[in-house]
Amino acid sequence: MIDSTRIHYTITNGGIAPNIAPDKASTWYFLRGANRVQVDEVLERVIKIANGAALMTETEVSFEIKAGAYDLNVNNTLNQLMFKQRKTLALSNLRRKTKPLQKLWFKHSIQHHEKPLRKC
């Protein structure tokens, strides 16, 4: 497993008494990684572990993926088109009007140790 990946979990149903195997149990896993490929690799491993545990105990296992997120997918063609349209609309006047707001936000981000937006 890659060092930057993380597996968080909680037992949502573990039975009613310690040291007694319940007839049904459930857990909730939250997997994190630097990118989607890493998370998918960890997910495969978690599923193999669950299937192995079910095989050892002669039980059944099922799972449901509730949510997921993917890496940023930059659309350079759309970015170039939008930049061209911006130049066509001549938004330079708007930029002058928003300068004080940009300075105020930058000052706020410095005070709160946030990363300021990068200029494109």
UniProtKB/TrEMBL annotation:
One of its GO terms (cellular component) is cytoplasm. GO terms for biological process: folic acid catabolic process. InterPro entries: Bact_exopeptidase_dim_dom, Peptidase_M20/M20A_hydrolases. It comes from the Bacteria. One of its GO terms (molecular function) is dipeptidase activity. PANTHER family: PEPTIDASE M20, XAA-ARG DIPEPTIDASE. This is Uncharacterized protein.
